[in-house]
Amino acid sequence: MDEKNKKLIISLILTAIFLPLAIIGGYFYFFQKENTEESVKEQPLVKTASKFEVFPVRLEDFLRPPKMYGLWPYGMRGNSADSHNEGHPGWDFELKKGSKVYAVADLLIQQIHSGDHQEGDQEIMVIEANAELNNEGFHITYHSVINIEPSVVEGAKVKAGEPLAEAGYPLSENSVMIHFGVFPPNDSIGSCPADYFSDSLKDTINQIVANSLDIKTGKPYESVCVGKIDKELYYKNYPENIKYLGGAEQFE
Ligand SMILES: [Zn+2]
C-alpha cells in the first residue's frame, strides 16, 4: 500500500467514524433547541380552560332576602359619577359577613393592592389575577377583600375553586360586598362576566338574580347583565383611562 492510498483509507475511516457522530449530535442539538423554544412559546401561565367552572361566590353565602341588593348587575347605571353612572363594569355581590371568594379558574396572582375605599381600621384590598380561557389571557379582579389567604401572594398560582380571601366592603350590619370583574383580551373596561361561565353554573346565576333586589323597583333584576357601559360618560368619568382602551370594549 503506497502512502497516498494509506492517507485515503485513514481519512475514509475518520469520516466513517465522525460523520455519523456529527449527524447524531446535530440532530439532538436542533431537536432539543426546538423543543425548548416550543415549550417557552406554548406554555400558558396557568392551565387553560374553555369556560370558568367555579363561581366566585357561593349561593348559600347570600342573605335571603338581601339587606341591600344581593346582586348589582353588570352594566346597571348608578346615580352619580361616583357610583358608575356610565354603567357598572362587573358584578357586586352582597354576602353574609365572613363569606369567602373563590378562584374561578386556575389563577396567576398578578397584583394585590389597596382598594379605593377604606372603612374602619381593616384595610380593604384588591386581588388582580390572570386566567386562561382557550389559550387567551383574561384579567380577573376581586375588588374589596379582607383576610387574604396566606398562600395568595403576588406571583402565586392558585387552583380553581380555592378560597382567595373574604368579601370585605361593609354594606350593612351583617352584609359585606365584593366586586368581581372580567376583562377579556383587548378589553380595558370589562365585559359581562356571565358569557365566560360554564353552562353548569347557569342555575346558580339564575338563583342569584332571583334573589336580587333592585332598589328602585323593589323587584329582582331581570338579568345579571343589564345594558352596557356608556362611552361618553365613561370618557367623562375616566379621562385618564382612555389611553388604556383596547379594541374590544363593551360600549354602547
Ligand atoms: Zn362593583
Detailed description of the structure:
The protein is α+β, with helices and mostly antiparallel strands and 252 residues long. The chain folds into two domains: 43 residues; 186 residues, Glucose Permease (Domain IIA). The protein is 22% helix and 24% strand. Strands 1, 2, 3, 4, 5, 6, 7, 8, 9, 10 and 11 form an eleven-stranded mixed β-sheet that branches. It starts with a helix and ends in a 15-residue tail after the last helix. The relative contact order is 0.18. About 3% of the residues have low confidence. It binds zinc ion. The site of zinc ion (ZN) has 4 residues, from loops.
From the structure above, extract its key features:
single chain, 252 residues, alpha+beta, Glucose Permease (Domain IIA), eleven-stranded mixed sheet, 24% strand, elongated, binds zinc ion
pLDDT < 50 runs, ≥5 residues: 36-42
Helical proportion? 10-25%
The unique ligands bound to this protein are:
zinc ion
Query: How many discrete domains?
Result: 2
The CATH topology of the largest domain: Glucose Permease (Domain IIA)
What is the alpha-carbon Rg in Å? 27 Å
* Silhouette: elongated
CA-CA gap between termini: 92 Å
Overall pLDDT metric = 88
What is the correct CATH architecture of the largest domain? Distorted Sandwich
| Portion in beta strands | 15-25%
> By helix and strand content, what is the structural category?
alpha+beta
> Under the CATH scheme, which class of the largest domain?
Mainly Beta
**Number of helical segments with 4 or more residues:** 3
Beta strands, count: 11
CATH superfamily of the largest domain, by name, is: Glucose Permease (Domain IIA)
